[in-house]
Amino acid sequence: MIKNRLLPAAMVCLLLAMTPPTPPKEIPLWPKGAPGSEGKTAPEKIVTLPNGEHTVSSVNNPSITPYIPAADKATGAAIIVAPGGGHKLMSIDHEGYSVGQWLQEHGIAAFVLKYRLAQEEGSTYTVDGNAVPDMQRAIRLVRSRAKEWGIDTAKIGAMGFSAGGELAGLAAMRSDNGLPNAADAVDKQSSKVNFQVLIYPGNSKRFEVTKNSPPVFIVCGNNDRPDISEGMPQLYLKYKALNIPAELHILAATGHGFGLRASSKGSMSLWPEELYQWMLGTKIIKVK
Q1: Model's pTM, two decimal places?
Q2: Percentages helix, strand, coil for the chain, rounded to the nearest 5?
């Protein structure tokens, strides 16, 4: 009889353990609507792919999804994560949410960015006029709530995959100290990128490296297209020439779009740990 009473309770505990956690709630970058999106009311489009992953498009109200680590694990560092997708869509799972979860588990606050897409069919948005400002606004918003989230305002980075890597790199080039005359308090915050994480970034020929560029961690596959597999070593050398902390990983037998998946094996699965070690080495974070 005792066993019969305990069995249902044990089953409930097992079911609870198997239930995935409730995903974090998105935070709009502009609560009253994004500048440049006035009158656009079409809902986001979410597509489930054959492998179970999701893509997102038709973004008119850009947002961040926060992954805040527990206080006893928090390092004080934060990263805004921009998924890729050719500016036509966003591969929101393996280049977004899974990355946010990994960073959170390792004490790094992460914010997965949904930005406006410049190459989506019928889009009126542009990379420079809308997508990059979305990344900059995300940085300002995180900085404005840094105390609440336990974040060091001198340790806020931008990470991007493919098209999202373009946004991260351009945002690092175009940092400012805030817009002092802005009516919006968030826009008065700095958009400075303290470090950047570029994962097979697109359009890297647009990147300009100066003595004020933030430290950079770069990952790509050696089987990726030439502008990435050959362009990333060239980009790394520009940082090296100016003595800016930089680290480059070129993964063997790897192409484009590997992101971070539970099914990943070999070097494709190890780059987050390499990033963590780089952040330790550059003193962005410390061992807890």
Answers
A1: 0.92
A2: 35, 20, 50
